Structure formats: C-alpha cells, structure tokens
Sequence to fold (509 residues):
Amino acid sequence: MTPKEKLNLISAGEVRVRFAPSPTGSLHVGSARVALFNYLFAKQNNGSFVLRIEDTDKERSSSEFEKDILNGLSWLGMNWDEGPKNGDYIGDFGPYRQSEKSSYKKHIEKLIKDDRAYHCFCSQEEVEAERQYLMARGEAPRYNGKCSQLRTEETEEMIKKGKKSVIRLRVPLKKVKFKDIVRKEVEFDSKIMGDIVIAKDLETPLYNLAVVIDDYEMKISHVIRGEDHISNTPKQILIAEALDLPIPEYAHLPLVLAPDKSKLSKRHGAVSVTEYKEEGYLPESIINFLALLGWNPGTDREIYSINHLIKDFSLERVQKSGAIFNVKKLDFINGFYIRQKNIDDLTQICIPYLVKSNLISKDDSGNYRAGDSQREISLDFIKKAISLNQERLKKVSEISEFTDFFFQDNLNYSKDLLIWKDSSKEEIVSCLDKVYTILSEIRDWQEKEIEGKVMQEANSTGDRGKIFWPLRVALTGKKSSAGPAEVAEALGKETSLERVKEAIQLLKE
RNA sequence: GCCGCUAUCGUCUAGUCUGGUUCAGGACGCAUGGUUCUCAACCAUGUAACCCGGGUUCAAAUCCCGGUAGCGGCACCA
Fold:
C-alpha cells in the first residue's frame, strides 16, 4: 500500500486531530486558539480531539505548566476525548505524554536497517562551525553529509569504541510538496535542509521524528497547528516517507500577533489563558474572541457560543495572515457576555474578586461580612450591589472598584466632588438638607418611591443635577455610578440617611 | 543571509476563485448627537482602507508581471 492509499484510508474514516503543547510555559492564548480550531474541526466532523503533552525535553518541561494547560483547556470548555484513565486528572482522562511512550526505538532501528538513516559521529562543535561557515557564505546552513559515507563496519567499529553519535535521516534531493487546507499548495526544496538529525540515540527521538510516529500511532488524520510549524512540515513528510507511513492532511493557522505585529509573547503583557481568567474574562468571551481572530463565518454574525462555532466553523474560511490580538475588542465581547449572565451566576463569579480586595469575607458559619466593619451582610445585598453595576463591567475584576462603597463604611471623597457644576456650597448644603428630609419621610423604602419623591424636588429646582448629583456623591463617594435611588434602596434607609448627613457635615467643615 | 508565508479602514474582517450590482460592506475603537444628575448600556450619525509600479481589458480590490514591506522558520528545543 502506498502512503497515498493509506492516507485515503485514514481520511475516509474518522477525523482525529490532536493538540500537542509542550509544557514549557502556561497555556498561551495563541495555543488556546490552535486548540480551539482543532476542537471545532473534530466536533463538527464527529471526530476525536486528542491531547498530547510533548514533554520529551525534560529540562524545560514541568508538571506545573502541564497542569496549567489542562486547567485552561477545561475551563474554556474544550475537553479531550481520550487518554489514560488512571491517575488524578481533570476531566475524564489524563493526557497522553510523549515521555510515557516507548515505541520509538523500533522505528529508529528500522530506519537504520533500511539505510534511510545513519549514525553521525561528528561533534556538535564541528557541525556548528560548518553551519557558521555556510551562513557567512550566504548559503543555507546544512550538514555536509560527512558520515553518510561510512560503511556499516566502520560505523559498528566506532559504536563499539563508544564514540558518541546521533541519528541522521538520509534526505533525498527533491521538492517536497504538500497541500495545506489553509494555504493551498506549499513547496519546499529538500536541498536546503541537508541530512537532519532525527534522534539523539536509539532511545531518544527528536521532535520531528516523535511527532511523525505519534501522529501515526494515534491515527491522526489532520494536523492543525500554528504557522510557525510550517517549515517543519517537509521534514516530517520526509520522515514519514522513509518510514513508509501515511501522511496526514495539514492546516497551518496564522499566528496571533502583538500590536507591533510580532508573535505575541510575554514581553507584550498578559499572554496566558490563566492571566486572562484572573483579570476577569469569561471563558465564553475568550472562545468567541479567539474564534473570530483569523476566522469569520462570511456573515455579519459576531456573537458565537462554542456550540454554534462547531456548526459554522470551517477551516477553509481561516485567514492566511496573522491577526493582532486586540484587547479592546475582547473587552467589548466580555462586556457583552457579562451583561447576558443571570445575576446569580454573575454573583458567584464576582465574589472571589470582592474577597480578594478585602471588601467582603466569609465567616466560619458561612455568613458574609463587610470588609472593614465586619458587619454581617446578606447574599442578596451583595447580589444587589453587583446587579447595579452589571452593565458597566468589562472585566469581572472591575467589580471591586465599582462596588466598594457598598461594603465600606467610610467613603473617602473630596468635598468638592459634591458641588454640582457652578453651584455654591451653600446651595448644595440646602439641597442635601431637603433631600435628607424627603428621604427620612419615606416609609416604603423602594427605588420607585425614592426616585419619585426625590424627582419631585429635583424638578422644582429647575436643574435636577443640583439634587441628584450631590445625593449620588454622598451615597457612593464617586463621580459615576448607578442611579442614586437604586443605590439608596440597596444601601437601606439608615445608611443612606447617615451618608447624606455626613456629606452635609463635610461641606460645613 | 537562506527558505517559506502574507499583504483591504488604527484593529478584526466581507468582497478576490467566477473582473462590472462596491466612489469597497460589517464589527471594535474613536468623534458627534439623542436619552440623562454622572458613568455605563441603548439608539442615530460620522471617521477611516484596496502596499507600490507596470500591463491585460470598454471595465481591476478582483487577472498577469515586477518590486517593496511585514512576519515566521532556519538546533543534538518543542
């Protein structure tokens, strides 16, 4: 069976894709997008989404990062479909790990037996010197093929002597062409790479070899990955051909760029899913935003849940050029999803942020207490405070600065803030006096009632701001907030009156 | 340096295959107005782009040629 036929066999069958991060850093938003596109493609084809941790580089890999990646994926709602069942994992399965595989050796031995690969005894220094020389001459840096001429006996002799070697692939001179779902036809000339190293020794495959073997053994039908891998593709094809393995379909996704158009990285600020999560972005926002970076449905629709994406997504409509990660748009989308949330869910999402800023705490019996005074507050009170600011939130983390006055007893604001436009201090004092009287006479402490009574007075002044503005500042200590009547209702009559009184005193000082 | 990829408003993009319906459409941002005590939300209006140069054609963002720029990759990392 030719590789081509094998490929047809695969693609005629199940769609199987993989997300293969190396645990050398937290889950990057760019990787998350690669994972997303894989996930969407798998789901819409009733295929499988496989997670493979590429941890062959033990120096740089860590289990902390692996955990972060797993957590990030499941937080975003992308659960992988298979994996080992034993162990303590998030979700139904653990991930596959390259470090736990041991089938590479037989493939490497086969390559050597078939003379598609050979031992190379050149030292790293030698190779590096050659590389520098070629680069200086303006040529492609590649191995000169010195050890490819060694006879079997010579090789065995050197191995016997304990001379250190690596395994190189005999790269045939040819044009390597492949079809890319995103970019159509791509072509590389193999002469620019020379005989590449595919393994450090019989037990230790290098990345390109490991990928080919793993993808084959996991029966991966489509390799969907970042564009930064595009020049690895011809190498992997060559390896697969030498091994007589089928070649999967490829789709190389454009990169996620920073505002300066370079590949988005740590130096540009927040790049990991975890960081965005902590800043208060919702998973649905991140999914929606990431999907639209480099893909669009061809219609004007921009709001997409992951389930709708599964329906409408198509690899063919993926953009070819890199896309800049535009936080403003993310903020907009996040604000939209926050507004859509029902208040109970939003409250649960917000509470950790309020706790973190010491505005509220939970005591041993499970009751909530306000930050500074430790007075007991109800969940309904918290809910109300949040609900009054729901439409103002772009990020959940902003909840603290918007609602602090609900939980603090002392508002620290300058008395100038109480002054409406060019009113005089005396005018405002008298307005607040009137408001105090009005409020204190209200029996039915409801927003409507408060609003109605205060509005009556405000209308009679001719300039409503004279009443409403100082009242809001008195209640919140801020120059912007929800309507004073709503705030007053939430705060309660006692606290509201107290704050108005304090404002009057402040002005009289 | 070599190889590869890409190129429409500031940003994400539609349109490019199958040239005319497009003095280029949507969204974010920004600006202005409406609503309003403020902010937000909402509504309305506006702002702003076919990388450059040739060619083909009655007609080019769309086809051809040549530049230029940006990005990615060039490991005994992944």
